[in-house]
User: Which sequence fits this backbone?
């Protein structure tokens, strides 16, 4: 369904991505793990052109494009097939929760306002915010804001939703509510690519885990393969560090 | 002793110049705002050569007095336009005044607009694009509605400054409030100077008080909108 091939990206002379590829099938939940600075965010952002890769290819259903030289039209097409959830929520501060969700539907997708509001309410209901339609972002907790962010991403029913560390800006007690929503989405068969430091989510919800370090994919496989039988020394080291895993080699 | 009746009579005569003065200020406000938007856009988008020129423009106009701008425009503009076959004579004093105020205030206003625009975090720009909005829709629907309440009160203050600055246009012979006060003094062979300047001052006082009052309301309105940001 979605394939990204051989992405390269440098910031100045800092080569951040050195040929990253990823294949996503419909219904997949892909977790991307890796130490800070390994290029996870940059990779995710280059998929929907928030970052312009120096080299790379994207094949998204019937669209095929060069990540370095895509036309405006292709970029717009791919963005409409993609939802993005940001680490810092990035809600529109001048809009209510419901307006945050409907904005893209009405303005970009030309869905009639009435219908868009229905869709928006349904999306907010789904993330457990049926009582917060008319609240502004400043009136919501971090967890609630991120759930609006998720509702905004899912409302247009995109083919894939990209999550960039959706819980890492949250207070620990608010992480659960967001992960719960993501778990529900996964259960319904939503295709998701999630950059995360939540090992529990990667292990229990994802069906495919990618470990990145130093701008390359070091190892990928099922959660079991990665968490229980990692092959690469770097993966083992990482897991030992973040989860204190000692029993992975059983 | 001050002659109150002179003040009173002068007030009446100067009041007739208020509409003219306000018109010049108003047109200058419109042009300088449009120009400031253009200057800010060039700087924000970092347009190659243009942004260097804008930088030069801003540093000149922001670090030289308004009086210089007026004299330069009045004596300089005809020289600049002459090679293009446009011959300006010295009679269109209101046009020179508007040109000078517009150029001068565009620089000030752009230094209000640009930081206000840049205060909206990059994340909201990206989120708008991810939601499928085009560049223009993003600005129009998401960014500018947040920039305007931030910039407006400071712009209002600048507009009031601009109105007060019309008082130096008399140097090129504009018969605005100040220019006509000068004329009254000249025609009266220099008597009652103080009374006449007091009258002129009172007129400006009324105008700026009304302006400040309006700006105060604007500020409250903006504060209400901004509450959520
Ligand atoms: N806009 C940018 N300009 C310059 N350097 C950047 C930019 N964005 C990222 N980088 C650099 O690229 C490298 C990879 O960053 P990236 O954010 O992709 O890492 P990450 O794996 O997401 O890390 P984290 O887990 O901390 O979020 C880092 O060295 C970072 O400093
Ligand atoms: Mg990151």
Assistant:
């Amino acid at each position: 369904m979605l394939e990204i091939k051989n992405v390269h990206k440098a910031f100045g002379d800092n080569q951040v991505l050195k040929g990253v590829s990823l294949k996503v099938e419909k219904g997949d939940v892909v977790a991307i793990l890796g130490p800070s600075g390994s290029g996870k965010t940059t990779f995710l952002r280059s998929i929907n052109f928030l970052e312009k890769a120096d080299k790379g290819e994207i094949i998204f259903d019937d669209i095929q494009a060069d990540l370095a030289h895509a036309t405006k039209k292709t970029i717009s097409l791919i963005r409409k097939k993609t939802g993005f959830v940001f680490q810092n929520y990035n809600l529109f501060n001048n809009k209510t929760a419901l307006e945050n969700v409907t904005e893209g539907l009405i303005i970009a997708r030309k869905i009639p306002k009435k219908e868009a509001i229905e869709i928006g309410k349904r999306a907010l209901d789904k993330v457990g915010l049926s009582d917060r339609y008319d609240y502004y972002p400043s009136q919501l907790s971090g967890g609630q804001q991120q759930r609006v962010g998720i509702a905004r991403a899912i409302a247009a029913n995109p083919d894939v939703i990209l999550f960039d560390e959706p819980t890492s800006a949250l207070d620990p007690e608010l992480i659960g509510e967001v992960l719960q929503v993501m778990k529900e989405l996964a259960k319904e068969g939503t295709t998701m690519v999630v950059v995360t430091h939540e090992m529990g989510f990667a292990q229990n919800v994802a069906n495919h885990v990618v470990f990145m370090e130093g701008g390359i994919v070091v190892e990928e496989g099922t959660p079991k393969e990665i968490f229980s039988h990692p092959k690469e020394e770097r993966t083992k080291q990482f897991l030992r560090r973040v989860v204190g895993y000692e029993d992975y080699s059983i | 002793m001050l002659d109150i009746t002179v003040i009173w009579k002068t007030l009446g005569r100067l009041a007739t110049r208020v509409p003219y003065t306000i018109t010049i200020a108003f047109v200058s406000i419109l042009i300088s705002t449009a120009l400031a938007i253009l200057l800010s856009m060039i700087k924000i988008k970092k347009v190659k050569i243009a942004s260097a020129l804008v930088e030069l423009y801003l540093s000149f106009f922001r670090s030289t007095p308004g009086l210089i701008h007026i004299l330069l425009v009045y004596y300089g503009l005809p020289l600049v336009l002459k090679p293009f076959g446009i011959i300006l004579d010295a009679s269109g004093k209101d046009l020179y005044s508007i040109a000078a105020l517009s150029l001068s205030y565009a620089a000030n206003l752009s230094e209000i607009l640009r930081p206000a625009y840049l205060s909206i975090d990059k994340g909201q720009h990206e989120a708008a694009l991810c939601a499928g909005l085009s560049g223009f829709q993003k600005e129009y629907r998401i960014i500018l509605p947040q920039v305007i309440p931030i910039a407006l009160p400071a712009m209002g203050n600048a507009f009031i400054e601009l109105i007060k600055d019309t008082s130096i246009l008399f140097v090129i012979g504009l018969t605005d409030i100040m220019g006509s006060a000068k004329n009254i003094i000249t025609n009266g062979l220099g008597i009652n100077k103080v009374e006449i300047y007091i009258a002129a001052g009172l007129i400006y006082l009324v105008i700026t008080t009304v302006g400040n009052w309006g700006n105060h309301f604007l500020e409250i309105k903006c504060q209400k909108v901004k509450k959520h940001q």
